[in-house]
What we know:
By secondary structure, the chain is of the alpha+beta class. The chain has eight helices and ten strands.
Amino acid sequence: xxxxxxxxxxxxxxxxxxxxxxxxxxxxxxxxxxxxxxxxxxxxxxxxxxxxxxxxxxxxxxxxxxxxxxxxxxxxxxxxxxxxxxxxxxxxxxxxxxxxxxxxxxxxxxxxxxxxxxxxxxxxxxxxxxxxxxxxxxxxxxxxxxxxxxxxxxxxxxxxxxxxxxxxxxxxxxxxxxxxxxxxxxxxxxxxxxxxxxxxxxxxxxxxxxxxxxxxxxxxxxxxxxxxxxxxxxxxxxxxxxxxxxxxxxxxxxxxxxxxxxxxxxxxxxxxxxxxxxxxxxxxxxxxxxxxxxxxxxxxxxxxxxxxxxxxxxxxxxxxxxxxxxxxxxxxxxxxxxxxxxxxxxxxxxxxxxxxxxxxxxxxxxxxxxxxxxxxxxxxxxxxxxxxxxxxxxxxxxx
Length: 399
């Protein structure tokens, strides 16, 4: 059984004059400044100067809105480190489990490691953000006495206080027992029951693959055959709440964006943006543009915010809301049902048995209480409140 402690690591990336490039190098963090860091900065500057203009260029996050360290260490404090004390209680459990396995002839192998990664994000606009991330893992492999059967189990942890070694070993023993009975099956398709850990791995990979742009371009399982995305489809009859939250107990991570390079799902210009549970960014202000986009459907929409719309919203924030950072921390499109002049349709055509109501065009929610009364009155035989809301008036405007 191997137990190890990992020292801190430092990485660096650079954005310069709306051009971005990266030079990757891992350097050990010591007590004295390292020439390697200075050399890495110069390499990054040179690479950025020679790079083509960045397609994702945006204003840098300023220091005024910096997400400060939540790990108790200031920007200038030394990088955090771990020590063997983190294994104190865990090591006793592990030793007892190893003895029990040996006593019944089961072989047990594996390793445990723990480290602390200090992440510093800064820029020339004054951003200074830091987070110290403790992290460890345990991997165990069990084998039968004759080495004909084997099983694996693993666990990730912040400090090993939540790792139940005995429970992991019991799970390994159960899986080894499953292998005592073997059935030869011909090639074909079979229903398979997956353990929760395997399902979790698949859900994580699904989450990594859930980029709107890739789905809109037909690259993932979220792409709809023939074009569009599968947004709005029911993927499973089972209720699943899949989300990210940097403050989730036991799974805490950096409360700000850390983008080592720009890609299809991230941008180095987002570095330092505050992060929160999906759709719930702490301290964020909702700014929406009311306007028509492309004609689409609930099944065919791609969910991608157009660069032109984003630029208009950012320009509005800069001009009218000077206290806000114009760089968005989250984006979403809204599906509208719109009439030609954006008026509602509230009618009971010809006094017949049907009420036609379309409180739409992006501003129906604010009138919901009143609309409920009007529609109820129409159903009870009341006339349309104003001729402009009749179906005939809207059909007359239709091109």
